[in-house]
Model the fold of this input.
Amino acid sequence: MNFKEIHIGALIKQRVAEHDIEIPRICNFFKCTEAEIEEMLVQENLSTDLVLKWCKLLEYDFFRIYSHHLMLYSSPSTIKGEDSGKEKSSLPEFRKNIYTKEIIEFILELIKTGKKSKYQIVNEYKIPKTTLYRWIEKYMKE
Done:
């Protein structure tokens, strides 16, 4: 999965096809026409309230894809969570590192192809060294 370029409509369409959900059911859920549903499925971006409805209908967290994008492609200071000199936010704080299978595979692929060194991975993605070496031992057995 390419977390850099996210086309939410295509991802939703893929999930609909995988679960063989019929268009009339989707129309009933969204209270809209088939043409409006088809239009959503070709959109690269959708409003968050629509994405939330799709998450509920398809029982899949599409927002996690955006979280992965942030983890992989945001600036190092964002990943690190540097907040020196910044006011505390009243917004809820979430765990910064949620390592899914896709994230682990992405990181290990960077090492395997030589695009990044272990040192670069640890520094850029703020993955603990012990965690990285555990992944290498567990998933890169040849």
User: Anything to note?
Assistant: The CA atoms of residues 38 and 65 lie 22 Å apart. The mean pLDDT is 83. The radius of gyration is 19 Å. The longest helix spans residues 101-112.
